[in-house]
Structures are given as C-alpha cells and as structure tokens.
Amino acid sequence: MKYNTIIFDFDYTLANATIGIVSSFNHAFSKLDIPACDAESIKKTVGLPIDVAFVQLTNDKNEVSINNFRNLFREKADEVMAKNTILYDDTVCTLQRLKKSGFNTGIVTTKYRFRIVETLNTHGISDLVDVIIGGEDVKIPKPSPEGLLLAINCLKAHRNKVLYVGDSLVDAKTAMAANVDFAAVTTGTTEESDFLQYPCIKVLKNLSDLFDE
Q1: Residue 212 buriedness (CB in 10 A; 0-12 / 13-18 / 19+)
Q2: DSSP 8-class letter at 48
Q3: Domain span at residue 144?
Q4: pLDDT by residue, tens only, the chain of 213 residues
Q5: 184-189 long-range Cβ contacts below 8 angstroms, 24+ apart
Q6: pTM assigned to the model
Q7: Boundary-marking domain end, from 66, 83, 100
C-alpha cells in the first residue's frame, strides 16, 4: 500500500448508528408536529449536515424550523446516540492492524466530535485514532475539503500518501475536492455502481478489504 495515512468517515463506514439517528430524527419531528419518517429515508441523509438532512426530508427551509429541529435532535441524541452506536465487526481489528503497521489514522465526519470520542472511549479504542475532525471543527461541512485538509495538516501528512475511506457520494466528493485518493465501502446506502462516477481507487465490501491487493 502506497499510503501512510488512512482517514475514515464515521457513520456507515466504521459504525452503524441507525437506531440512535432514526430515534433522534423522529423525536424532533414529533415535537414539531411533523409526521415520522421511515428509517430508510433517514438513513439516506446520514453524512449530510443535519440542517440539510432536515430540508431534504421535510422540504421546510424555514430557519426557525431548522434551528428548532437541530436543538431537539441534539437533545435526544445526547440520550440515545452513544449507547446505540455499534462498531462494525472488523472496525477494531482494522484500526489495530493499521496502527501496528505504523499508519496515521483519522476520522473526518459531519457528526459532532464529542460523539465520536464518546463512542471510541466506550469501546476502549481511542488510542487507535490519531485525529478526529467533527462538524463543529469546520466552517463548511463535507463535501467541502476543509475537514479532511485539517486532519491531513494535523497529521503532518502529504496528500499523495493519504487515503480517505467513506460510504457515501459526499465522501467521494470530499476526497476529490481535497485531491486525495478515495476508497468506497458499501456498508452504507450507496451502491458500488454509484461510486464509479467519481475517482475511486477501490470499492470495498467491508473494511477488511482494505488490505487486499
């Protein structure tokens, strides 16, 4: 592998937080007298900024509605997200293998950084990730390259030695904007064929496939 730095998206790349995400969306919708949304529709918005996801699901662009939704979502997420976030079976062993082999590792996500830290601490693997860039760390969310470039800078890495791994077209666009290589993983809602319209060095069925030549 030509890389020395592997940076990951979080939701549907390293972990499945569907239960907490759907619960938080529908809690907020209920409080706002908006009909509940089905899990599959909500899942397809994961990776988008929360306000963009709200507009996509409701077609409501009112700033007051968006702010109310954001606050209500966070209220429920504080209660349910960490305990309902499940790491994929090969997440820990993949991160362990990378660290043992001397790779720099990072996470760049639209999710709040403190939620990622909470999850990693819960599983006792915070030492396997060198840098975490969350939604609160950037002015412009993905697919802006800001967060990915910030992580690369923190790790003192060279872009031609960096691989970004993600499950969505937002992640593919982020890597392209940052001018770094991208590997897709199909553990989210995006099909392999959809990734092929973007520069993609490989499409993985799961994280373990990273190590396949």
Answers
A1: exposed
A2: B
A3: 5-16+85-211
A4: 799 999 999 999 999 999 999 999 999 999 999 999 999 999 999 988 899 999 999 999 999 999 999 999 999 999 999 889 999 999 999 999 999 999 999 999 999 999 999 999 999 999 999 999 999 999 999 999 999 999 999 999 999 999 999 999 999 999 999 999 999 999 999 999 999 999 999 999 999 999 886
A5: 185/12, 185/13, 185/209, 187/12, 187/13, 187/16, 187/88, 188/11, 188/12, 188/13, 188/43, 188/46, 188/47, 189/12, 189/40, 189/43, 189/44, 189/46
A6: 0.93
A7: 83
Q: How far apart are CA 75 and CA 29, in angstroms?
A: 12
Distant-in-sequence, close-in-space partners of 49: CB < 8 Å, separation ≥ 6: 110, 135, 141
Report CA-CA distances (Å) from 69 to 15, 61, 159, 164.
24, 11, 37, 31
CATH of the domain at 139: 3.40.50.1000
My answer on whether 91 and 68 are in the same domain is no
